[in-house]
Specification:
Blueprint lengths: L1 E7 L2 H14 L5 E6 L5 H12 L14 E5 L5 E6 L14 H7 L1 E5 L12 E8 L7 E6 L2 H6 L7
Parallel strand pairs: 2-5, 2-6, 4-5
Antiparallel strand pairs: 1-7, 3-4, 6-7
Helix pairs in contact: 1-2
Length: 157
């Protein structure tokens, strides 16, 4: 279910979206970050991680390790997956993703590599270049009605 379409004019707007989302997240939440290379998935993930884990000063993209874990200030673990290099969808289970789906907050870049193994509670955030804006991005949020209720204060009328 489509929840909203947003336009992010620049990197600062992407970071503001990340800060807002970080305030809404709780254990069991999954954010599926979709988009082309360079669309802003990692920047959005970093903004969320920085807000939830302010003691973290170096937030690398887990492109080669596939997963990076963090302990948030709320004591809910945060798992950042980058599945770009995932060889087979089943390989993700060796990373402990099933456990993370239950007790952590998951940020997943390249979720399409999971071949439909995302939980129903997933909020999909698709980021695309906006040809009408210089460095802007179009963002589409999709999720179940519970996500729509949780995100209602940021949604356009």
């Amino acid at each position: 279910m489509q929840i909203a379409k947003l336009t992010l004019a620049d990197l600062a707007a992407t970071k503001r979206l990340g800060l807002f989302l970080a305030e809404q997240l709780m254990a069991g939440d999954v954010l599926a970050l979709k988009g082309e290379l360079g669309a802003g998935k990692s920047e959005l993930a970093r903004a969320i991680i920085q807000q939830m884990c302010p003691k973290e000063t170096d937030i690398p993209s887990p492109t080669f390790t596939l997963v990076q874990t963090y302990e948030s200030d709320s004591k809910v673990p945060l798992w950042h997956f980058d599945l770009y290099r995932l060889a087979e969808p089943d390989d993700v289970f060796e990373l402990g993703i099933e456990e993370a789906f239950i007790e952590a907050i998951c940020l997943i870049e390249w979720p399409e590599r999971l071949a439909g193994c995302l939980p129903d509670r997933t909020l999909t955030i698709e980021i695309n270049y906006d040809a009408s804006a210089n460095s802007g991005r179009r963002v589409t949020l999709r999720g179940n009605p519970a996500w729509q209720n949780r995100l209602s204060e940021m949604l356009p009328d």
